Fold:
Amino acid sequence: MSAGSSSVGATVPQTATTSAHLFEARDVSAHYGRVHALKPTSLHVGRGELVTVLGPNGAGKTTLMRALTRLMPREGSLFFEGRDVSALKTHELARLGIIMVQEGRGLFGQMTVRENLSVGGFTRPHEDEKLETVFTLFPRLKERVDQISSSLSGGEQQMLAIGRALMADPKVLMLDEPSLGLAPKVATEILETLGELNRRGLGILLVEQKAPLALKLARRVYILTLGRVAAELPADQIGSHHDLARYYLN
Ligand SMILES: Nc1ncnc2c1ncn2[C@@H]1O[C@H](COP(=O)(O)OP(=O)(O)OP(=O)(O)O)[C@@H](O)[C@H]1O
Ligand SMILES: [Mg+2]
Structure:
């Protein structure tokens, strides 16, 4: 008898309580006071999947990320690797591997590159190995390992923020507009690295405002408008929706 099967043969319906996806949110919603910034929203990230959330300014993208990682109060359910994790706090979700790279990067400005990376990992074991992985992905960080992080360029700071998240062994990595404010060349470099991480098996939820490259990397896309998911579609089908293509592909 396999673990979890019932001795009386009755099959418990799984759909109501568990999820087959790596990560799934069901009817997650959030408020700022009386402002209902995120209406009940459901989405999922499959194993090894890169999913993009697109939406204009004020659509609720950051609110969604903050609600998912419980950086703000929220209603609704969250599942991770089939387990209901709705009640877990931000640091408990992080320990499971649900890690977010925030908009604005949130680095420790007076600390060096190496120090910022060290605080990203929860445990000392394998730190050198993980550092090497980060430096292979972002060689510029290796060159600047003892530099104070506030003196890095915007692109380098974003690389460091992603590197720090990688030190925490993410299983699903959420990124809030990682290309924001960066020159196209650096933004491309960073998004391509996310593509590489995804090819290595990392589940990624990538929030962007307008990013043709994000669409090339993604398998599926959710369009968020006015605090709700207005559409969900395979990323390669955006081109066949006239209004979406005009807004998001230019
Ligand atoms: N701290 C706050 N207090 C009150 N309202 C807020 C707060 N933060 C965000 N909002 C409102 O919630 C809505 C969604 O904001 P949010 O920051 O999630 O949008 P966004 O899609 O991330 O936008 P952007 O692309 O500009 O980053 C907006 O109407 C915003 O004004
Ligand atoms: Mg935002």
Remarks:
- The pocket of adenosine-5'-triphosphate (ligand 1) is lined by residues 32, 35, 37, 55, 57-63, 209 (CB under 6 Å).
- The mean pLDDT is 89.
- Residues 38-248 form a domain with the Rossmann fold fold (CATH 3.40.50.300).
